[in-house]
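Q: Got a minute? One more chain.
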Amino acid sequence: MLENIEFHKIISNTIMITTFVMVMMMVIEYLNVKTRGDWAHRLKESPFLQIIFAAVMGIIPGCLGAYTIVSLYAHEVIRFAALVTAMIATSGDEAFVMFSLIPEYALLINLIVMVIAITVGVLLMHFGKRFEFFCVAPGHMEVHQHEVDAHPQTANSIMQNLKNITFIRALLIFGVVSFLIGMATGVFHHEHFDISTLDGAQPQHLHDHAHDHDHSHDHANEPFTIDWIKITYIIVMITALYIFLTSSDHFLEDHLWGHVIKKHFLKILGWSFGAMILIAFVGQFYELNEWITDNIWMVLLLAVLIGIIPESGPHLVFVIMFFQGLIPFSVLLASSIVQDGHGALPLLAESRKSFFTMKAINVAVGLLAGAIGLWVGF
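A: Always. Here it is, folded:
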């Protein structure tokens, strides 16, 4: 069975996930030192602001907003309530597919899950203090007063840094440049669901509006699409390159290398790769059965349980089933609440307790929302 697993795609996705999370952690570390920790303190001092910020980051299509929230959580900037808020709000790469196939329903789901996410976050903020001990161990965000002004940002300082380049600076610059080249050449890319596999499928929800729809005509006039994930990665990588070129040797070696890379890199890389290998192996035995329409409560439970998987892909079956009119809106809503694409993979690496506790809460919320929806016929 292993010969059927596309290892090159798994390795590419693992590198993409790990690189983005690591760079986001580095950017957070950089901002913390540059501002003497003031920005982090402002966010720390306002739990409600954390929840609003987390909800907004969560509804951003894709996994990048979720990665950012996990990075902030790992750096003790946000609390567990905000983490749960973001993971309820996010739908991972499935959001891109929903906006492509069922845009009006995608907007509705985003609105509903955002309200639910903020509500749950506020409840946890007031009544979920017992979960705070699940946070990552303290000590990530340190500011040494003598280094606050040690971030030269002039052309001369960059030339000086390059002239007296250290091994760590050279390694970091080489890594970011190699990643950018890999993205430009297609070596590194984030896998998305291929919407073309749905050609010919008639969305029953939109049946009344699609009598004269010509699929071949649509393909001939398919609009140009912007790869926002690639653009975001490029912006983040260029930001990282700027930090590597302008920062002091102390900051690079003590903070970025000592606090971020040595403590997080292998964990995130290993858990991301291992989880995707396992998911790819199990996925070979997964089949969709016709009995689903006659066992809708079982489908709801299945949607919620599959939502536990920290991966973009398995959940797409529910998007497709809704698109084809096989399941009600409430099942898709429950799936969107529980699942978070790749967003929770770094959290699984950082804190298993946080991951499983967050998932348990999301499962309960998803089941409740889905059950209420089925009960009222939504």
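A: Residues 2-136+156-190+226-285 form one domain.
Q: Perfect, thanks.
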